[in-house]
Design goal:
By secondary structure, the protein is of the alpha+beta class. The chain is built from 15 helices and 4 strands. The model has no long low-confidence stretch (mean pLDDT 84).
């Protein structure tokens, strides 16, 4: 089984449009807008108010990046501003904690403003870069990461859920089933890295380097194009549950934990080999973790798995 690593991304994959706030409110319904902002990053009333204050002051607004390649429009970057525009102009946001215009606009809603102030907000021009159709999910994910101002487990899994849709949903369901917590982004990252561990042989050959999140996406896109078999889901679930029952639910180094779980999965969770694995990690764990901390490639991750399996089997 071969993976196609070729990437074709260029200037022509975007189109630039100048839109007004009113145009954006017309083009984006509430579902589009709210789904682009995770609850973790949703701006507070004060933050949204400051964004509206910047519009009232006539300040240039940040560029928006939008993915319009699927049925659901996704604001890749700039979602907090879109949320503020929508909340104030459509949902009755009351301005608070203003810095410059407190005496003039504090406590006001959009209908409270003068017709001129309302018009100035709605006619504010914003540069919008729109992602064109034709890119693979793997390529779109990479673009999302290049544009996101914050990269963490929440951002990574939000990007995957938007791009892979139902194909990603089983990972989210598995994470919730294992720990039954409201926030499962770190567990979802573990499962994605475990996919790389399951197919580590694919990344042992060749002279290139593949970032581990890119490798997980390539597997979801190309290896399991039709979805994941139930036995994979069940085996992953058993490995995760057995780990958390033994080690607890605190995850400090997701890639390091994923390394252990990937080896455990490849050993079929045999008790004898698990004891050997625990002993080896006690002796060599620091070296393995140091390698993963300085190199986030799937190739290094896979070589370490291969080394551990060779030493145990």
């Amino acid at each position: 089984m071969d993976i196609d690593y070729n990437v074709h991304i260029g200037y022509n994959d975007f189109r630039t449009q100048i839109m007004t706030v009113e145009d954006l409110l017309y083009r984006f319904n509430e579902t589009d807008e709210t789904s682009s902002v995770t609850s973790f990053r949703r701006p507070t009333q004060a933050q949204s108010s400051r964004i509206i204050e910047s519009v009232l002051l006539g300040m240039p607004q940040p560029v928006l990046y939008i993915d319009d390649t699927n049925e659901e429009r996704v604001v890749i970057e700039g979602a907090e501003h879109m949320y503020a525009y929508y909340a104030f102009c459509k949902k009755g946001l009351r301005l608070s904690s203003l810095y410059f215009k407190k005496d003039q606009y504090e406590g006001r809603t959009f209908p409270d403003l003068s017709p001129l102030a309302q018009s100035n907000i709605l006619n504010t021009k914003i540069t919008v870069n729109v992602l064109n159709p034709g890119l693979t999910p793997h390529e779109r994910f990479g673009i999302y990461l290049c544009l996101k101002s914050r990269i963490d487990a929440t951002s990574l899994q939000w990007c995957r859920s938007k791009i892979f849709g139902k194909k990603y949903q089983w990972i989210r369901d598995l994470a919730k089933n294992v720990l039954r917590m409201s926030r499962t982004e770190t567990i979802e990252s573990l499962v994605c890295y475990m996919l790389v561990g399951k197919y580590y042989n694919l990344f042992l050959e060749g002279g290139g380097l593949t970032q581990i999140d890119a490798a997980a996406n390539l597997i979801m896109e190309q290896v399991y194009d039709g979805g994941f078999e139930s036995d994979v889901k069940d085996d992953f679930r058993q490995v995760l549950i057995s780990y958390f029952e033994q080690r607890g639910q605190i995850i400090i180094r997701p890639k390091a934990v994923a390394l252990y779980l990937s080896v455990l999965y490849n050993l079929y969770n045999n008790r004898k080999t698990r004891n050997q694995l625990d002993k080896l990690f006690n002796e060599e764990g620091r070296r393995y973790y140091a390698l993963l901390r300085t190199d986030d490639s799937a190739e290094t991750f896979s070589r370490v798995i291969a080394e551990i399996l060779t030493r145990i089997r």
